[in-house]
């Protein structure tokens, strides 16, 4: 016990937030088994019920179990945020490494493209892409991915450019290693850890973005539960049943804060700067 | 025929172009010619910015010179196809000054030394780890150091690992680019002894790039002095360095710190060599 205490000294926020996230991830995985009711089962006779044993957090305007909807909503938010993170990191890693390692006109071309994307506010671009593709969760995911990878690509490219001048890359080349081997063995393993830290911060943003777009009616379509969409549906009952907005709002708050706190303390430890 | 011949190398770096100024060209090497015989060590001396390290890069085939040729084992390094260049690489290895930045911090000593072996020798896992163990022992480390990471070694030990990596393919020649300059005097001496020992054992040739005339004197057979991108003088007999009247050479010799401070004023260049020839 004392060992745990010394290991966690001054890292309580980090530990608590990791705990919260672990719980959320578990809940999102186990949602079908632990949810007390079917989240999309409409029962108008039971609409806007106060908390009861059968419906621990009450029901919404269509008589659906609030708790079940929150649990299933965690799936969408966390799952798709992770997907966006992994996919945009993957694209950014390929483009950034290629650009930084090859240099020359490829580098100029790719980086000017990134500059172009970064010149627009994120949300405007995402709205534009979603507008083109039509509303829906997958469209939102694609749109967010198309905007997010640029930041990873730029950062990875910068790190690769500075790292490829280091002696151990030259030494690897003198040792007869191919470009592919140098990238795989020397560049990527050294670039990835700080990028992962940055990614932790981005996760919070991805969750907010998904929820924001669902709130605007562009993301997830009813009846699938999602936190942003639930807030949106709750607006009509803001005065009579504010808890319909409060619950999903609190969920978003907790998850985003947890990601940010974890990201902050990791970046403090690794010396990575955040971009906002 | 010499093992390595450098013929009339001229090279310059282009300073990056800004919006309204034209590209500035900074000359680094102008018609540099050198030759290194098999089994000998050439000390390449010069103050900072003399172009020593650029010459080293050019010789290693990393920086194509604007003019001139580098002939290694009778072949022009910059006129080779990819395959013979790959073969050339295994005979021409390098050890850099900064031992920490020369190794990937995420690999163990074993993996670091294994890299050239993986690329050229197709050894089985057992043979390879035996080869690495014997390399580690040759450079004065123990085979139990195999699983350690770079941060667990001192600068001198890490430099030994760099030497082991350079040695792994049994090259003909090693370019030592300021390889001992960042080490303390005691470590310098032991590393120099190790290099000397390896040279006689394997008939290696060295290009020993340094600004430290003592270190160069200790290991070289011949010495070349560089000044402002040119070879100021080549000494086949290294003792002649101390009697040279060439201003660039004299400057280097005079700047050398005597072994003991009280000799500082008395140490005329001609006598200086007595101070450290033991």
List keywords for this structure.
heterodimer, A: 276 residues, mainly alpha, MetI-like fold, 10 helices, 73% helix, B: 278 residues, alpha/beta, Rossmann fold, six-stranded mixed beta sheet, four-stranded antiparallel beta sheet, 9 helices
- Helical fraction of chain A equals over 70%
SSE class of chain B: alpha/beta
Strands of chain B, count: 10
* Structural category of chain A: mainly alpha
Largest sheet of chain A: none
pLDDT under 50 segments of chain B (min length 5)? none
- Summed up, the helix count of chain B is 9
Q: Total strand count of chain A, please?
A: 0
SSE succession of chain A:
HHHHHHHHHH
Query: How are strands sequenced across the largest beta sheet of chain B?
Result: 6-7-8-3-9-10
Question: What is the approximate shape of chain A?
Answer: globular
Architecture of chain B, CATH level 2? 3-Layer(aba) Sandwich
The portion of residues assigned to helices of chain B is 25-40%
Q: Overall mean pLDDT score of chain B? A: 83
What's the overall average pLDDT of chain A, rounded? 83
Strand content of chain B: 15-25%
Our measurement of the CA-to-CA distance between the termini of chain A, rounded to an integer number of angstroms, reads 38 Å
Kindly report the CATH topology of chain A. Answer: MetI-like fold
**In CATH, what is the homologous superfamily of chain A?**
MetI-like
Number of self-contained structural domains of chain B: 1
CATH class of chain B: Alpha Beta
